[in-house]
Design goal:
The complex is a heterodimer of chains A (297) and B (279). Chain A is mainly α and 297 residues long. Chain A has 14 helices and no strands. Chain A folds into 2 domains: 32 residues; 230 residues, Orthogonal Bundle (MetI-like fold), CATH 1.10.3720. Helix content of chain A is 75%, strand content 0%. In chain A, helix 13 runs antiparallel to helix 14. Chain A starts with a helix and ends in an 11-residue tail after the last helix. Chain B is mostly helical. In chain B, helix 6 runs parallel beside helix 11. Chain B is globular. The chains are: A mainly alpha (297), B mainly alpha (279). At the A-B interface, helix 2, helix 4, helix 5, helix 6 and helix 8 of A face helix 1, helix 3, helix 4, helix 5 and helix 6 of B. Chain A: It holds the Pfam family BPD_transp_1. Chain A: It is a multi-pass membrane protein. Chain A: Its main location: membrane. Chain A: Part of the ABC transporter complex CysAWTP (TC 3.A.1.6.1) involved in sulfate/thiosulfate import. Probably responsible for the translocation of the substrate across the membrane.
Chain lengths: 297, 279
């Protein structure tokens, strides 16, 4: 078919002309802008990512794997996974509760509540850690009492969890609120009219509607929780084998000029981060309609 | 508002439970710790806070942090708009992969980004050697800090602007072209104003993130007092010496400047939305 048309054009001597749509840039401009964007992403994002793995494997696979096998490294990996496993359900529970409160009820001060939930995004992680030290440190009123009763928070695991929950606080709520506003209250109200209990409405009506958005928020939360450095550095006390998370261990190894060990730990953490990124991208492709479309971050 | 009840009546269940969880967690995790900082500041006294902050080294660090964060956010505003446009409007092989890669700075832990950027841009690193040939030192100078701040803020503008570009009605562009506007004229006078509120939101998020950033910066900064020392690092140094009051004073200064800055950006945003008439 297309051959016939080409033949016809060849016979009549007319040449196919490409018209540029009035709503598009010319080809050289498109090409230049695309190359500029690709170069930027390459230099700023892809190159550092490649460097992590290149430096980790600078002395071969064996050296990298051995450095991850020692006692302190294992303990750091376990601690990071534990802290994430505790912080994630806390934030998910908070996010669901806050989104339910904000989208199912009308009350005064809602805008203020939303602003307060977003507050951790505009506080430096270091300042967040400082706040936790001031409230729960051994010198403070609350912290002193807790230490006296055998439950230290700062320079111990509870402080690391608290700092992690602080920096990841808005993630789940921010994903759920726009989705739940869009879905409205009609379905829940119908279920209630039909005699369903509150919990039944939540499990069988609300949760299926928000599950992908919930998972999306949870993935963002996981990525940040595993990698948090500033807030955790302030509250952890950096005790090797006890309160040193993976990012803290990376810093300690790097400062001791143990490059392969530092980058091996970094590569392990990056691999975990890449898993969350791949899952997140898959969600975006498959369930775009059920995510908070206007706030994809 | 007089006459309207504090909470509107509704048959919806779970008010007490959801309000209980929300307010308890918000208080323990966010409000009480921040209140502790402010209380500490109040008991230390404004005069003492001023004495801590009003030192050359502290001013230099605060000025450096906010100045470089502003420039990094500005770069991300321009590059983020370009990236959002290319990723939404153009099609090229590997577009989806590039789109996913834009999120890497959110996923990659800051300490990992810090050591990777340092290895890459140090005088003996791949890009560092290249720059050194032109007499340009990046790592352990303010350029290095700027680079790290650009890295952590890269996705914000792109991600806020992309959905807006996707929703632009092509007829508006056609109308502009029909009326004789050049493509460049249409982009600047028709498209850009539509993107402005979202772009400004992304700019504010990138700025807030860059001001407080610590993990990715300390490795590449060199941390030389008065030259490449950022404000969050000063807080960490004071804390390591157990000077809680001095650390608190610098923390309060950072909080106040950040909030003032976000307030100004919100005001600009309200104005720009009002100019647009809707949205």
């Amino acid at each position: 078919m297309s051959d016939m048309i080409t033949d016809t054009i060849a016979q009549t001597g007319a040449r196919p002309r490409k018209f540029r749509a009035a709503t598009a840039e010319s080809t050289p401009v498109r090409l230049a802008l695309t190359l500029l964007a690709l170069a930027g992403v390459g230099v700023l994002v892809v190159a550092p990512l490649a460097t992590v793995f290149a430096e980790a494997l600078a002395q071969g696979w064996a050296a990298a794997i051995t450095s991850l096998g020692n006692h302190d490294a294992q303990s750091a990996i376990r601690l990071t996974l534990w802290v994430t496993a505790i912080a994630l359900p806390l934030n998910a529970a908070f996010g669901i509760a806050a989104a339910w409160l904000i989208t199912k009820f009308d009350f005064r001060g809602k805008a203020l509540l939303i602003t307060l939930i977003d507050l951790p995004f505009s506080v430096s992680p270091v300042v967040a850690g400082l706040c936790i030290v001031l409230l729960f440190g051994a010198n403070s009123l609350v912290g002193g009492w807790l230490v006296a009763h055998g439950f230290p928070i700062v320079f111990a695991i509870p402080g690391i969890v608290l700092a992690t929950v602080f920096v990841t606080f808005p993630f789940v709520a921010r994903e759920l609120i726009p989705v739940m506003i869009e879905q409205g209250r009609a379905e829940e109200e119908a279920a209630l009219t039909l005699g369903a209990s509150g919990w039944r409405v939540f499990w069988t009506v609300t949760l299926p509607n928000i599950r992908w958005a919930l998972l999306y928020g949870a993935l963002l939360c996981t990525a940040r929780a595993m990698g948090e450095f500033g807030a955790v550095a302030v509250v952890s006390g950096k005790i090797r084998g006890q309160t040193a998370t993976m990012p803290i261990t990376i810093e300690m190894l790097y400062n001791e000029y143990l490059s392969v060990a530092a980058f091996s730990m970094a590569a392990a953490l990056t691999a975990l981060a890449l898993v969350t990124l791949i899952l997140k991208t898959t969600l975006e492709l498959r369930h775009a309609g059920q995510l908070a479309a206007n706030r994809r971050h | 508002m007089a006459g309207t009840p504090f909470i509107q009546k509704t048959p919806m269940p779970g008010l007490r439970l959801s309000a209980g969880i929300t307010l308890t967690m918000l208080s323990i995790v966010v409000l009480l710790p921040i209140a502790a900082l402010l209380l500490q500041g109040a008991s230390f006294g404004p005069a003492n806070i001023w004495e801590v902050v009003n030192r050359e080294r502290v001013w230099a660090a605060l000025f450096l942090s906010f100045r470089l964060a502003f420039f990094a956010a500005l770069f991300n505003l321009v590059f983020g708009l370009l990236l959002a446009w290319v990723l939404t409007r153009y099609d090229f092989p590997g577009r989806r992969i590039v789109d996913a890669a834009v999120d890497l700075p959110f996923a990659l832990p800051t300490a990992v980004a810090g050591i990777a950027l340092t290895a890459l841009y140090a005088p003996n690193g791949t890009f560092g050697q290249l720059a050194a040939q032109f007499g340009w030192k990046i790592a352990y100078t303010q350029w290095g800090i700027l680079l790290a701040l650009i890295f952590v803020g890269l996705p914000f503008v792109t991600r806020t602007v992309q959905p807006v570009i996707a929703e632009i009605d092509r007829e508006v562009e056609e109308a502009s072209a029909t009326l004789g506007a050049s493509r460049l004229h249409t982009l600047i006078h028709v498209i850009l104003p539509m993107l402005a509120p979202a772009a400004l939101t992304g700019f504010a998020l990138a700025l807030a993130r860059a001001v407080g950033e610590y993990g990715s910066v300390i490795f590449i900064a060199g941390n030389i007092p008065m030259k490449t020392e950022i404000a969050p690092l000063l807080i960490v140094i004071q804390l390591e010496e157990f000077h809680y009051q001095a650390a608190g004073a610098i923390g309060i200064a950072m909080l106040l400047i950040s909030f003032a800055m976000l307030l100004v950006i919100n005001l600009i945003q309200i104005l720009s939305r009002r100019r647009m008439g809707h949205v």
